[in-house]
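WARN retry 2 of 3 for item q-0093 after timeout on previous attempt; input resubmitted unchanged.
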Amino acid sequence: MDLKKYRHIEYGGWWCSGIDPLNDYIDMGWGCFKGDKPRRDYNKIYKFIKYEHPYKEPIRAFFLRVPKHIWAKVSDSCGIPSTEEDWQHPWGFWYWVWRRNVPVVIVEGAKKAGTLLTAGYAAIAIPGVNAGYRTPKDKEGNPIAKPSLIPDLKHFATKGRPVDICFDRDTKRETVQQVRTAINRMGRLLVAESCSVRVIDLPGPEKGVDDFIVAQAQDAFKGLYNIAEALEMWQLRLFTLLTYPAAIALNQRFLGQLLIPEHLLNSGTEVANRRVSVLKNLKQLIQNVLSSPQGKIYLSSADVSDCDVNYVLSLAGEIRVNPFVIVKNYQSKAGNCYSYKGNDPKDLIAAMDRAIAKGGHHLLCCSAQKAKSKWGTQVLEERFRRKFPHLRILRIDSESVADPTHPAYGCIAHLNEILTKYDLVITSPSLETGISIDIKAHFTAVWGIFQGVQPVNSVRQMLARLRDTVDRHIWIRKHGLGVVGNGLMSIGALLGSQYAATRTNIALLSAADNADYSCIDQNFQPESLQSWGKRACAINAEMRRYRESVLQGLQTDGYTIIDATDAEPQENQQVINEVRAVSEDLYIAECSAIANGETLSDTELKKLRDKRAKTRAERQQQRKAELQQRYGVEVTAELVEKDDEGWYPQLRMHYYLTMGREFLSVHDAKRAKAQIDAGENAIWKPDFNRRQMLPAVLVLKSLNILQFLSPGVMLRGSDPELQQLKALAVQYRQVIKTYLKLSISDKYTPIMIAQKLLDKVGLKLDYVGRFGARENRERVYQFVEAEDGREVIFQGWLKRDENAVSTTDNTEIYTASLDTKL
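OK item q-0093 returned
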C-alpha cells in the first residue's frame, strides 16, 4: 500500500464506527474517516474523496451505539416494548432490534443514521447507495453470480421485518437514475428474504434526511414515514419518472399557442397483425423527420416519462437530439373523490340510488359493457330503468355508438350538446381518451366502477373527461385482472422469459417441419422491446396493487380522497338482488338471441365483419356464425355461455394434448409463417410467443397431467403420483408461469396444483369426502368425465385437421419434448 497516499490524515479529521452484530455485538473495527483536508481522487482529478474506509476491506454497515434514552424513544415510536431484561442484556440495543423484529430504516451515511436514531427510528447506515449488496465478479469485472445482501443487512433481513429505505435526494439526472436502480436492487433482495419494504422519498430542497430534519423538524419526517410507499408501488417510478431537466416550466392550465399533435400507437388486434410493419414505419418516420433541419417531434402526455423520451431517442438511431422539455406544473382544483370499499360496488350503487332520488344529473363510468357483466353498462342501464322509470338514460359503449338504431349512434362528435338531454349517462371506456366534456353546472356527480381491466392511467383519464369540478364516487377492485407477459415486474426477468420462449418455439418448429428458420430476425427492434418491457413491468406492478395505484394517481391529480360510508346491509342486499335479476334476464335473452339468430354463409359473415355500423341483431348473427366456425357444431344458448366463460382455449388445449396432438406442429407452423411473412422475416417476440401452443402442451404432457383422468380412481394428496406432481411443478414453476401463465407456490397442496393444471383443459377433480382413521383422515377426490359434448367437437376438429393435412406434403407426426426436462 502506498502510504504517501494517506499523508492527509496528519491534518486530522473524524472517525466513525459502531458495533458488530456478526461478532457478539462488540466494537466494530471497520468504519469511515472524514479528513479535514481530503485527498484528491486520482481517477477523477476534479473530485476529492470525502469519506474513506479501510483499504481493501469488505464493506460493512454502521450500527451506532445507542444510549438508553434514545433506546426508549425508539421503543415508544415503533410500539415494541423494551424491558429491564432487554436493557441489562450485554448485547444491547441492536440485539433487541434484531430479536424483536423492530422496524429499521436504511440510510446513506452515518450522520443520517445518528439523526434518525435521535428522532426515534432504528436506523442502519451504509456508506453508499450500492453498498447494501454485492455482485461477485471475475478478474475482468464481469458478474459471475447473482447479487446478494451484505452479511450485516442479511442478518437483519428477518421474515416480516418492516424495512424502509431513505437515501439522499439528488437533482442530477444520471445520479437520480443510479440511486433509484440501487434502491430497486437492494429492495428486491430484502423482499426475497420476506421483509416488508417501503421507500421514503425526500421532497427537497434538502439533500439528506439529516438536513431535512434540521430544516423542517422531526414531525415533518414522521409525516414522510407514515406515507412511505411499498416497494412495488415505488418501483413504478423507475418507468414513469421524468428526470430530463425542464427548459420551460409553466403554471397555467393551457399551453397557449403551442401546437402539440398527439400520436397514439394502439396495440389492438389490427395493429398486432401488422406490428412489425407499424414499428418499422414509426422508426423510419422518426429518422426522416429528425434528419431534416426543420424536423421536430412533439411528445404530449399527461404522464410523460424518461421511458417515452428515451424510446423516441433510441428510434432516432445515430441522430443526436437534445430533448426540449416543457413541464406544466399547474394543478387544477379536482375536488373530492369518495372511495367505496368492499369486494363489489354495491355500496356505490346504493349511494347512487340515494343521489338520483334527490335529483340532479349523473355520469356513471364502467369498465365493462357486456350483458354477462353484472356491473357493466348494459346491466346497470336496465337496472336503473326498472328502478327509476322516469329517468332519461343514455348508454355510451362500443356497441351503442356503432348501432344506427341506438340514440348514442354518432354521439361522440356532438357530445356536449347531446349529454344535456339526459339525466343519467352510463359509459364504457369509449370515453376514456380524446374526449372533453366541457358542460358546466349540469352533472351533479361522476361515479366510477373499475373492475381491474383498464390500466391505472386510463381510469384517471376516464374520470377526468368531465372538466367540471363535481364530486367523484369510485369503487375499484383491490387487485387487477390482467397482466402483461408472465406478470413479472423485473424487466430483466420479463424480457428474459420472452427471449427463452422465442428460442424454444423456433427450435420446436424447426424440428417439427424441418423448415429453415435461421433467416428470421429474432432481434427485431430491441429498443422497442425494451420500451415494451418497461411499460409491461409498470402495468404488472399496478395490477398487483390496483386500488392503491388508482387512488395514489388520483391524489397526484389533485383529488381529496375520502372513505365513503357503507350502506345498510338491507340496502346492499336489495342492490345485489336487483343486479343479479337483471343480469340473468339480459344474459339469458342475449344467449337465446344469438342461438336463434339467422345462419350466415361464409361470404355473408365476411361482409358483416367488414361492416362498421351494425345493429344488435347483426352483431348477434355475426357471433353465431363465428361460434359455428370455431366449434363446428350447432350453436345453442349453452354453447354461447360456455364460450363467454373461456371454454374455447381450454378445449383447444385438451384437443391438442390428446387426439389432435399430431396436428399441433402444423397449427403452430401455419401461425408462425403468417407472422414471418407479414414482418418480412422479422417477428415481434411477444406476439410470436403468444400465438404458439406447442410449449404449453408439452409442459402439460411432461407433468403427466392426463394420468389423473381415469374415472372412478380415488386420489389423495399423499399419493406418490400427486407428491411427484407437486415436486415437479414447484421445481419448474418459472417454466409453468412462462408457458401456462400459472403461478405455482410451494405452499399449494398437490390437489390444488392438480386442479390448477386441469383447469387449463377445462376439467377438474371432484371432492368425494374424508376417509381414513380419525387421527389420519384425508380428503379424497376422483375424476368424473365431463359430459359437455367436447367429444363431438373434437371429432369435428379431427376431421378438419385430417382434411387439411391431406392437401399438404407435411404429414409427419411430431412427438418432440421441451429442452427443459420436467
